[in-house]
Amino acid sequence: MDKTFRYRLRILAVIALSMFAALTARLWFLQVLSGEEAAAVAETNILREIRVPALRGNILDVEGRTLVGNRLTTMVTINRRELEEAELTEDERLEMLTELAIEVNRSGLLLKVKDIESALSDPSFTRYDDIPIATDVDEELLIYFGERPDKFPGVEVVDSTVRAYLYGDLAGHVLGWVGPINDREYETRRPPPNKGYGIRDEIGKAGIELMFEDDLRGVAGRRVVEVDRLGQIVREREDLFVAPIPGDDVYLTIDIDLQYLLEQQLERTIFSQREVEPEKKEDEEEDPLPYDVPGGASVILDPRNGDVLAIASYPKFDPNDSIGGFSREQWESLNDPLNDLPMFNRAVQGEYAPGSTFKLFTAHAAWHENVFGVGLVKDADELWDDPGYYRLQSCVGATNASASAGAGGCMFRNANDAPYPQIDLVRAITVSSDVYFYTIGESIYINPLHNETGIQDAAAEYGMGAESGIALPYEQAGFLPTPQNRQERHENNPIAFPNSEWYPGDNVNTSIGQGDVLVTPLQLANAYATFANNGTLRSPNIALRVETQTGELVREFGERVLGEVEIDPEFRTRALEGLLGVTTDEDGTGYDAFNSRNFDGAFFPLSDSPVAGKTGTAEVRGKADTALFAAFGPVEEPAYVMVTILEEAGFGSRSAAPLVARVLKQIATNSVEDAPTASISYARSAALPLCLEWLEWLSTDRLSNVGSGNSNSETGPVLEANGEVRVRGEVINCEELLSDNGITVSAQ
Length: 748
Description:
This protein is an alpha+beta fold. The chain is 35% helix and 19% strand.
């Protein structure tokens, strides 16, 4: 091999070695130096968690019909990071937010620039959160803002899930509502594990939503994103995603059809009674107080187990209005006494004098304290004439003013000074003789043989003067006045309670449910349920069970017995006869209501389903009387108890009793109609004007737009020639709708 060839081989070897060395160096650089740098860069990336809210559980009625669920809606959001990166001047930012508010307002919502700024400054949101500023906006905004990303940086219309109260304002006081958690709730709430709150989370505020918050609330999930040092999202870590767990479902004892009937009749009675002119007595100089009837409440219980079948309060509110949060104006209106406090649940929070409905418990006390046949109190079966008035025994022969001092003075009278000849215990209950119970009330107090608080003690046995324990918030306890607690009130607050003395007249007033006696409608219903079932006092139950959304039982609620009331069988027989006479005896205070003679009552099938009841009329200083009626039936095996209380409505026999008769008749005859959902109610309301036009067309052939197709079928309403109206996906039959409104469609 010559030297030239060997030289060339050496050159090629050097080149190959150089290339190999260079390649090795490059690989070392990429794998070591650059890898370390890349790892260092990766380590500078930050993981950010984004909470994924969980769906709240549903609330269902006794038949499994969903009353409260969740619905998909559209929401306007702003991403704070994208807004900052747009680097708008202060004037440009204000102009953008102003135009944003204007466009949202065009969709029917009220949104102010200050509201947007407040949301953007909320420290609970991170730079990566989409901050909600308006809920339930028009879907057209999705296109509007989507086409203008440069004009509205960070603004987006997204799908969101919100609470849906499917029956509108029906059972609103029972169901409650949800809203953003406030500072006090955030600091004091002790949720179960994994159900902690963020500052902006929603929480139950009232009703079942509040009382079962821990069950209804789900477990939030999480998304994890990786962001670089500049705050830009690099990727989403799907491997770290945790799915949310929805809340549990709560099943109630409420029957929504019965609830609808009760609320419908309660509202009807209130409005009709406002139109009634109070009768002026011949000897009265001043006009009687008007029946303003600002509100009322009604309760239906099952006395066999304590289940609440329906519970209503009027005026009412629509929990759907809380979606997105009540505005300040809405909140003030809903809690304004001038608007009769629509959010005030009168059924459990309202405290009223029970009037003559209380006489049942006075009679119980007299019988079990052996008051009958002692002193001025006649034997229970002894007939005597009630003259229409009663003079206190302590006033007999008195010559000084002190003898007539105290509650009510010396003279106490029946309503309208009515005399009742030949009455005993049974008839006194039937005709509601005040004088009969005045005698009992004073005798119990002044006779040393009797327990002076016997009436109050008997009422307490039936659950009055204490919270019932129902699973609804803000329940009031009512009040049973006694000499002792009057003295205590005075000592604790002598300005508010200047009188510390207890007079015989106070006991007289107490005997007929007047004076300082206060009960809630629910308490009174539960007391009558206790008598109806022969003595078992239960805590009213409004929830049946809690289940997961897959149907697994979490827990269930049975009857809760609070105590047993000893009711002498002979007394119960006599009292029951008197209560039955209220509806069946022509002189009974509830006879007209149950035999449709007057006052918009009902022809009740008393022979098939006898009802026992008691009217009540309670005086209120400076206002018209409170009207009450308590009833249960069928008498032999009671399956329902109903109590109605109407504020400033006059006599219970003329307003409360007819309402009860109408409701119980539909129960007794199995004619309770189906409750319409909010969407159906809206459709029926929207369809009525077109149905009237359709009726006119049937008779005059003057309906111009039938089948014209001029209306938008998606928003409606659209009237078809066959008498059907389509509204937002609902189909309303005009003939049925008109018939329900008392309009007959004649056959053509």
